[in-house]
Amino acid sequence: xxxxxxxxxxxxxxxxxxxxxxxxxxxxxxxxxxxxxxxxxxxxxxxxxxxxxxxxxxxxxxxxxxxxxxxxxxxxxxxxxxxxxxxxxxxxxxxxxxxxxxxxxxxxxxxxxxxxxxxxxxxxxxxxxxxxxxxxxxxxxxxxxxxxxxxxxxxxxxxxxxxxxxxxxxxxxxxxxxxxxxxxxxxxxxxxxxxxxxxxxxxxxxxxxxxxxxxxxxxxxxxxxxxxxxxxxxxxxxxxxxxxxxxxxxxxxxxxxxxxxxxxxxxxxxxxxxxxxxxxxxxxxxxxxxxxxxxxxxxxxxxxxxxxxxxxxxxxxxxxxxxxxxxxxxxxxxx
Length: 335
Known about the structure:
The protein is an alpha/beta fold. The chain has helices at residues 3-26, 33-44, 59-69, 85-89, 126-138, 173-176, 190-200, 214-224, 231-243, 253-258, 265-281, 289-300, 308-312, 317-329, and strands at residues 49-52, 74-78, 90-96, 102-108, 115-119, 140-143, 146-149, 155-160, 181-184, 259-261, 305-306. The protein has two domains: 1-226, Rossmann fold; 230-335, Helicase, Ruva Protein, domain 3 (Orthogonal Bundle).
């Protein structure tokens, strides 16, 4: 068997396990196919996801289900204005032994897990939000002058309520850029909501079972980086990201006047990884331009900001990204 044959066989086997993973998630999450797919993509790429949606749309339920199905140890932190960094990272406490001796002992915080749900992350102060920065980027934390490695793999799935903005602290651009995808969670359709009501208000409720474990998930994460990306697809990624940057020669005309800051190279990296993961989740061997168009919105929207004049005119980033995809790639952005 050649190396290419071995890669194809590994892709097919992993794709089958991921299909089983999605079936298991669907036991507890009705509808929301795009949300489930994009959240899986973020984890398969080794990244973090920002789930944005109104309360009651199963964001917490999704994270709990993912922890079970993917075989990851999961913790949840409810972010509040009085939450302190030590409440997330942990702290050293002075313990007295049986012989009367005293010594400092480090007590792990909830961040020492493989899947951390940061619920309503924008309700915490900037000081507490910044406690996640090193962990999200470097997979380690520093407490009392000592570096402590986090478990592998380590992923943050944060939620944010776009409706209530009183008493919240907008996430800084540096932290937003560390989320691989912003995943918008919309209301379910009428039929989906009917099924939700019936499945969650009866005597028995569906449960999820593990499909993957830590080793198989990390193997899938390594496999994604081995999937080939065609030159034409890579060129369109670069065209799209560079067209979204104001103040450059490559900027799209609609971007120059409307956007105050645009995506950096991390956006191109995120797209190049995410399209591979989407192809694998959908059982394909290589990503194509449709993958780029489908993931342009979740990759770019939190890495761009509209200027005051554009907001006053009623422009939205979603519409602007759709226009970029249409003009740069000749395709329609996925909803």
